[in-house]
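Let's practice the habit of predicting before peeking. Look at the sequence and jot down your guess about where helices and strands might fall. Then scroll down.
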Amino acid sequence: MTVPTKEILADHLSQMIQMKTVSNSDVNKVDWSEFEKLHKLFETLYPHVYEVMEVDRVGRAGLQFHYHPKETAKKPLLLMSHQDVVEIGDRSQWSHDPFSGLLLDGSVYGRGTTDCKHLVLSELEALESLFAEGFRPDYDLYLSLGYSEEVYLENDVDGAQRLVDHLAEKGVHIGTILDEGGGLFPEAGGRLAAHIGLGEKAAVNYEIYCDRKGGHSSKPGNGTALGAVAKAVVAIEAHPFPYRLTPLVEAQLAATAPLKEEPVRSIYADPKGHFEALCTLAQEDPALDAMLHTTVAFTMAQASTQPNVLPSHAAVGLSVRILQGDTVESVERRLQGFLPEGVKIRHISGKDPVPASTPDSDSYRLLTKILHAVYGNELLAIPFLMLGATDTRYYKPITDTVLLFTGHVHDNRWGAAHQVNEHIPVDALPASVEFFRSFLLAY
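Done guessing? Here is the structure:
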């Protein structure tokens, strides 16, 4: 058995998309029966995986697979992904049923096709095909499938934390993890670049709020609770966190330099030596800006529900992405310095950023070796800092190296994750399965 055809892969992905595994911060609002349907589909599509590997149900819908060899001198390998998807938003904006798994014009459509059921598919298909061929690894192999990656659970322990605890209770320490994040991208001039995530900023949520007596809007006095909060917003946005270089971002910029034109090429090649010029570039480039410091985005607000009522409670939500070197506590302490009298801040969710992995590791070298063997030595390997967050943040305490890479080749035909009409080209599916097969065989 080899890699299934793109048509078979598309059919299997389509069936996965039909399971409405939408997560919610309130576990009581999740339809857990949809996860059960997905699990039954896994059992049908991947019989060799269930025959060869032990399967534990963890938490509300987590699955943790394990193959244990008789003897091994290698550190365990863990593949991971998540089964949950985000809400569809406004249904009227979708051209097709977001849970139909529709096959149309060479693509699979539906919520979760690019985040993250395409990765669930790749990992399970790689394992199924290899096990069917008789492959049995000479190392401990794990597959963890979470169920709450898209949210922070308000009334339960996050699914990934439960999966990690399950491993930790057994005394397991993972050598290498592969998870969502990077992929292969065609660059200008036809060169292919492999973007390999080695770390991520921590996604942390805060709330700034002010409580007052309220009253009638005809008598606002010297200001309102909302006005006080607004002053805090203005002050915080006027004082962004200072720019700085972390080792991973420095390595990312240097690796990206060959793809840039002058003078950016020289700046990226030696970011420390051109730090002032780099900071100037960041002012016009939101992605570069986010790589160089902890960012604050005000995304939600609440106050009075009527125009003629003074709010007794006004609040704004902050989505903060914390760079390594800052912490939840240090960020809160800095933000407090910009709050006017009567305005307070509280930490809602999220933890400190975990240390980034390094490109100076056997696993990173193995990954790049595999890619060069498949795509040629002209392929450019770029270690990078993810600006978003994955479930790997929970696993870092029991893991040596995290590689955020799926093996998919991306192009402009993809429908972006979390957007309306999310979709993935059918011909993008086999390359990822091939990558995981190669990595499993070579590890």
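How did you do? The chain has a mean pLDDT of 97.
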